[in-house]
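Support reply, case 0932

Customer input (verbatim):
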Amino acid sequence: MDTLLNMRAFLAVTESGSLSAAGRKLNVTTSVISKRIARLEDELGAPLLLRTTRNTEMTPFGERQHAKIAALVRQTDELVAAAQRTRKALDGHLRIKCPTSVASTYFGKLFFDFTRRHPGINMEVVLIDKTVNPVEQGFDLAIGALPPSYPDVTDIPLCEYPLMLCAAPSYIAKRGLPEHPSELSGHRCLTSPALGHLWSFESDAGPIAIQIQSQFSVNDPLIMRQAAMDGGGVALLTAFVAREAVRAGALIPLMPQFPPRSLWLKALVPTVKLHQPTIEAIIEDLLAHCKPVAPWDQMEPGL
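Our regenerated output:
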């Protein structure tokens, strides 16, 4: 523990520029700061700071050690905070908005397991396939993948949310394969309110945005997938929704040279709630579930 205090003293001096300022920051005297720095230098076997009458600067050795010391202190703080959250029983009501396919296929078990580990939590999961402002709609946390952000809301990126443009072999046999996004204006397109009528694609020359005409719109991705499989038109689906139909040959990916621009799944949290223990705990679980590999790129999905 003394070593940790000594490292905090060193970081405080490097951030504030002097021993006296560091003492004020840590609420101790200048002499205490000086002693802690000296003890840390003894432990490491070399001077960390050059002290002059005007200021304090790091030695070359101190500069090399600074990032390592900062990382050790940060990791210790995170470890202690996580342990404290674990020891303290969580309670209260948690209201979460999540897209239907994401919740039913990948996040449902995570949410339920969270309540089993924290029996004092009452959770309400609302399935909505459009972006919402969690502050205005009364959610503690909203899962979404669309770009809009809101005032007083913090966005926490979770993982990439890839899209796939596809159509059934029967549709392609009748209407042909589009070879460029601009050709979609001549095709029957299946849309969702969430993704809208402006579809964006990547290309070697930069992003391409195309305004398409909707032949059929539905806010359920499974209904849209079925409509596409039945030859109803060209559909822009989340990749994990389309994947099994593509493997089975019921859908064919279109224009691989112009992939749809990916979205990012994120958690939207009212900023005033960001550091509440319950919110921190569920965010920690979501990040662990989504990184380093997105849940749809892991093994077979859970409930």
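We compared this against your earlier run and they match. Two observations from our side: The two ends are 44 Å apart (CA to CA). The chain has a mean pLDDT of 90. Please reopen the case if you see a mismatch on your end.
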